[in-house]
Amino acid sequence: MTEPQNPDQTxxxxxxxxxxxAAGRSAxxxxxxxxxxxxxxxxxxGDYHALRGIDLTIRAGEFFSLLGPSGCGKTTLLRVIAGFExxxxxxxxxDGKDMAHVPANKRPTNMVFQSYAIxxxxxxxxxxxxxLRRDPRKRAEKDEAVEEALAMVGLTGYGARAAHALSGGQxxxxxxxxALILKPEVLLLDEPLSALDRKMRExxxxxxxxxxxxxxxTFVLVTHDQEEALVMSDRIAVMFEGGIAQLDEPETLYARxxxxxxxxxxxxxxxxxxxxxxxxxxxxxxxxxxxxxxDIPAAQIATKNETDSAPMIGFRPxxxxxxxxxxxxxxxxxxxxxxxxxxxxxxxxxxxxxxxEEDGTTSEPVRISMRNVFGRDIPDVGARVTVGWSPASMxxxx
Length: 398
Ligand SMILES: Nc1ncnc2c1ncn2[C@@H]1O[C@H](COP(=O)(O)OP(=O)(O)OP(=O)(O)O)[C@@H](O)[C@H]1O
Hints:
- With 398 residues, the protein is α+β, with helices and mostly antiparallel strands.
- It has helices at residues 25-31, 74-82, 124-129, 139-152, 168-180, 198-215, 226-232, 250-255, 260-265; strands at residues 34-45, 48-59, 63-67, 89-94, 97-98, 109-112, 186-190, 218-223, 235-240, 243-248, 270-280, 283-288, 292-296, 301-302, 312-315, 321-324, 333-344, 348-355, 366-371, 384-389, 395-397.
- 38% of the residues are buried.
- Keywords: ATP-binding, Cell membrane, Membrane, Nucleotide-binding, Translocase, Transport.
């Protein structure tokens, strides 16, 4: 017998993940039938209001993520969908059917947990077959189903192995195979990768995307890891305190956060205080510390600014460039500043820059990221620099 390939080492690098986003996928998903619908779902644990009016529709075949900080209610929502928790009010529909009196084991869902929950004293095949223990099919048919499920997760040839001898990544694959063998309509994944080290997690992210595309069923993932959600999901619901703050595709969430809190939670965003100078129809003219006056069109205005009542301008670290002072650069607008901190990451460098203000003071440091290029000098702390930027990459939080 040939030694099976180690599936931990066959995955593509995580960077390839976004490439699996097939053209037209988002339009196809929009046309797909609703698989999970929550209508004004509330959940109380005693006096504690854990879900506060959840409204969402997850479409058939979608890879959907619930993202938010610890305690925001994402696991509660997943358990509500699975039928492990009753709701206090509202409606949950799965594939068009009201789930009010449908117990967990009668729902077309299956759950994969953070802890692998596999039986170490059983073989890989026995673990996977566990999902079929109530299945009336003949042994040979079940063995075939086990082989099929193992092939799906890249574990062909691993059936006879003892489960305790597997790596973390392989155990999670066994847990996935055990869930998939039941052919659920919806797979619910509660932080399935959080116990893995970073490299393995990135590999498994790509594997999970491929698997989801291959089997075509709806995946609902709970994660507190924004990068994981951005890489894997067709759409993401960002949750805070039992409510959905924004539900969008990853690109929209990152480029057009609707509130300052979402912007803060997803990646890094710089904030500079702004004063509204003039309203010209839909466009606002603002005066921004360190940047001067900018015209902001309606599309770049976020209406919610929960953490501060004063208007703020936000931009991503990669939306601006930093160069040694006097070096010509190709940017619509330029501001002067001084380097406060340099953080070197190999492929890129983060610069914290204080921007010059008209009154001779400087702004709070803003974080700017630049991809490193061989032969280009990295300015030192204290160096005078020119920051090149464009009004098009600025968002106003009112
Ligand atoms: N069985 C329970 N009884 C009482 N309170 C609960 C129960 N389960 C969860 N909670 C509370 O409800 C809130 C939401 O919990 P939930 O587990 O859904 O959060 P989460 O976003 O998944 O967080 P984490 O990532 O830490 O698991 C928390 O404040 C939690 O303490």
